[in-house]
Design a protein that fits this description.
Order of helices and strands: HHHHHHHHHHHHHHH
Radius of gyration: 26 Å
Structural class: mainly alpha
Number of domains: 2
Helix content: over 70%
């Protein structure tokens, strides 16, 4: 690696590490579970050490220290963590930690930082219910199931729900425009599409969540009966789960036996471990899910319709396309939080694919309009 490449990687690393300090310190304050909060505080301390190490190397080379500030992605992660919980942004943060590990492996005198970043990625995978390893011993029982399938999925559902509304209604509006109907007809059609789509989404979400809740209730009742009738077998199953996640056989058996000795805590733990569900929530409220789906779909679907409320003709059409492109880019940028891709790539991909879909419906509408006119 030449001098310029090393300087560039050091500067990029310093900005990333500074961002890590801010995010992990914020997560420690946001997180309600004190054990997880302590994990985030320790990760922030490691990032502090990395900042100091890189600053010393830059100073030793007589190089200036770059300005420290959160990137757009970092600000987005902080916003969603405060709004929806830390679990909502952990998949994206895990991706960043893995990319840092790869970057430091190619940087001279950065082996310790690479190990720390790799350890952070393993910890985040453990917290989100991913690969084995990471949090150990008594902390494991507290961490498992805490974030699995909750925050990250909620953020994904929010972004994709609004995206469904925007893309489907944009395509509908462009299809009606292609058929050469009046602006008032486009407006009425767009609003009808908004209401129909939002109601359909809400009903589907209610049925899905309610069915899941009923299934979980039945499975939990079965687990309760099994704990009462065969506690040794349940303890063995729980021990195998912990062994698969990195604990030794002895540690896994000791932890499982301790948990099973209390029937109330045993039922809660087994529900989290075997069913991946919090027995207190059972996957969430069906009504809350339905209302949220309705609102998110409607927010997305209103975007291509708005210009037709205030404008007519070509001005309304161009306004609809322009406003929709802005909305699509924002939603695409939102997907970068759980895909790890760049904001520009994610935003432009969403815009291009959605405009292609809208273009197809426009030309289909055009063909239908011509045939009807003929």
């Amino acid at each position: 690696m030449n001098k310029d490449e090393e300087e560039k990687k050091l500067r990029e690393g310093l900005v990333d590490e500074y961002e890590g300090v801010i995010l992990y310190e914020a997560f420690a304050q946001i997180e309600k579970d004190p054990r997880l909060a302590e994990v985030y505080r320790r990760m922030a301390e490691a990032e502090h050490r990395h900042v100091s190490h890189i600053e010393e190397r830059l100073k030793a080379k007589g190089l200036p220290i770059p300005e420290m500030r959160l990137s757009l992605r970092g600000r987005m992660m902080l916003f969603f963590a405060r709004w929806m919980g830390v679990g909502a942004v952990l998949p994206s943060l895990m991706s960043l930690e893995q990319s840092r590990t790869q970057g430091y492996q190619a940087l001279p005198q950065a082996e310790a930082m690479a190990r720390d970043e790799n350890s952070h990625a393993r910890l985040l995978r453990q917290i989100t219910g991913g690969l084995p390893g990471g949090v150990e011993g008594g902390v494991l029982a507290q961490v498992e199931g805490r974030h699995r399938g909750s925050g990250g999925n909620a953020l994904r559902a929010a972004v994709l729900g609004a995206n469904d509304g925007l893309v489907s209604n944009l395509s509908l509006v462009m299809g009606v425009v292609g058929a050469s109907f009046s602006s008032s007809t486009v407006l009425i059609t767009g609003m009808a599409g908004l209401l129909a789509g939002a109601c359909s989404m809400a009903l589907g979400e209610w049925l899905s969540v309610q069915s899941s809740r009923e299934l979980f209730q039945r499975q939990i009742s079965i687990e309760k009966a099994e704990i009462a009738s065969a506690p040794e077998e349940e303890a063995e199953e729980l021990a195998l789960i912990y062994q698969a996640r990195g604990l030794s056989e002895q540690q896994a058996h000791e932890l499982a036996t301790s948990i099973i000795s209390n029937q109330e805590s045993a039922l809660e733990t087994l529900a989290r471990e075997e069913l991946s569900v919090d027995p207190a929530e059972l996957g969430g409220s069906a009504w809350e899910a339905a209302i949220t789906s309705f609102v998110l779909f409607a927010i997305g679907a209103i975007v291509p319709v708005l210009p037709f409320i205030f404008l007519t003709g070509m001005a309304a059409i161009l306004g609809s396309i322009g406003l929709s492109m802005i909305g699509l880019f924002i939603l695409g940028a939102g997907t970068s939080l759980f895909t790890g891709r760049s904001i520009l790539f994610s935003g432009m991909r969403m815009v291009i694919f959605s405009l292609v879909a809208a273009g197809i419906t426009y030309f289909i509408g055009r063909l239908i309009g011509v045939s009807l006119a003929g």
